[in-house]
Amino acid sequence: DAGVIQSPRHEVTEMGQEVTLRCKPISGHNSLFWYRQTMMRGLELLIYFNNNVPIDDSGMPEDRFSAKMPNASFSTLKIQPSEPRDSAVYFCASTSAGVGEQFFGPGTRLTVL
Amino acid sequence: AQTVTQSQPEMSVQEAETVTLSCTYDTSESDYYLFWYKQPPSRQMILVIRQEAYKQQNATENRFSVNFQKAAKSFSLKISDSQLGDAAMYFCAYRRGRSGSRLTFGEGTQLTVNP
To answer: How far is the alpha carbon of B44 from chain A, nearest alpha carbon, in Å?
Structure first.
């Protein structure tokens, strides 16, 4: 299995631009998580889905952030408009019932200038 | 709300020696899991070891073992025979019993292994 796939691996953009991060979970996993890692706040959950349905989006910072999971094999995290304080590493992780751990993707390093 | 605390921002160990990383957590749940993840400079999050709260026996994975003290809500990681490749940021994490639940992470401990 290829593991959790995230794209792009690096993204540099200018303030005000729209940014879309993509994630493909491990085949057969029915839970998908978006985490953000910053020096100031550490690793924090943004949103997660079970069976493509958003369960908890309380970690989404504000309306500029949105996430979708149109099917079991694809999810997006969109920031519009982006701001410098959104600069961080964004991780996607997946798991399923009976699987003990969450498997993480390699992360997307986002830099907003 | 569940919280996870790692009180050691940095630790160092000599190669081949043993080091223990500390973690405490707070929860009112009875069914939960605890994890240690390793994040090397590549930033990939790698599971090191996990512990189910209902199991009294401490988990062990090769050179890695935990000391799980449920009453004290303590979950420390012991690395034996430390290797240069063990150098990384280590995160303690908590998850409620259901596998489709979120992870709550501690602040992390940066481990340096000296040759």
So the answer is: 5
Q: Report how far residue B38's alpha carbon sits from residue B90's, in angstroms, rounded to the nearest whole number.
A: 5
- Nearest to residue A57, comparing CAs of A84, A36, A26? A36
Name the token pair of B53: 């709260």
- Going by the DSSP 8-state scheme, the letter that residue B85 receives in this structure is G
* Chain segment A5-46, per-residue pLDDT in tens: 999 999 999 999 999 999 999 999 999 999 999 999 999 999
Q: Which of B47, B91, B100 is opposite residue A31, by nearest beta carbon? A: B100
Which of the residues B48, B99, B104 would you substitute to probe the A interface, choosing the one with the greatest number of A C-beta atoms within 10 Å? B99
Q: How confident is the model at residue A99 (pLDDT cuts 50, 70, 90)?
A: low
Cβ of A107 and B44 within 8 Å?
yes
Residues B11-42 have pLDDT tens digits of 999 999 999 999 999 999 888 999 999 999 99
Q: What is the signed CA dihedral for A32, B90, B37, B15, rounded to 10 degrees?
A: 150
A70 touches chain B (CB under 8 A): no
Give me the residues paired with residue B96 across strands.
B32
| Contact assignment for A99 to B99 by CB distance below 8 Å | yes
Residue A87 exposed, middle or buried by CB count within 10 Å (0-12, 13-18, 19+): middle
Rounded alpha-carbon distances, angstroms, from residue A40 to B21, B97, B110: 21, 28, 15
